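Below is how a single chain appears once it has passed through the pipeline. First comes the sequence as given, then the structure the pipeline wrote out for it. We keep one example in the README because the format questions we get most often are answered faster by looking than by reading.
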Amino acid sequence: MEPKPYPTDDEPCGIVCEPPAPYGAPAINLDPSLRYTYADYLNWTDNLRRELVDGFVKLMSGPNMIHSKITAAIFGRIWSFIKKRKGKCEILHAPIDVRLPKNRETADNKIYTVVQPDIVVVCDPSKIDKKGIIGAPDLVVEVQSPSTARYVMRTKFDLYEEAGVKEYWVVYPNAGLTVFLLQENGKYDAGTTYDIVFMPDAKVPVHTIEGLEIGLKELFED
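Resulting structure:
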């Protein structure tokens, strides 16, 4: 079968378009000591998932079953609430590129940080384009694993805080989650932790979406 061509700017393709990587394409050898831009990132056509942090490449591992279940539970609960209420916010899930420009430099060759959070909620439609999201989402959810704990709690914490993400959820599989809220001084608060063992009946408010609370049991019932 002939591969279907990647849509041009004049062709409809939904909210987000990404050119498909050739199946089985060999991994591209990148120099870990070099800084890359989003323009470089767009030319990497192998099957590896990567993020850019200030221009440096961070390889991503694939999600496991627990990660996938928790992500699906959070996404489904928020999506159904938004749809029912016909809210203005939109929820999206990985893989989706979130570009975090600095100094209002929005050209592809001027953007050095691109991440793929597990879940994002965006309430400003102007931040969504064919390439993904540009600018800070209103809510970011990251499901942590032992291998990503430092990256999620330090590197990404600082990235999202600096970018102005209003609400940041760090989810611990089989344990619970912590919600960080951006304060007027541009810094996150100390965080509110919801533990499934000690707070099984807790309701977690989604501050980005007025009126939405998610029961902890709903997320960790399996």
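Residues 65-103+115-220 form a domain with the tt1808, chain A fold (CATH 3.90.1570.10).

See the next section for the split statistics.
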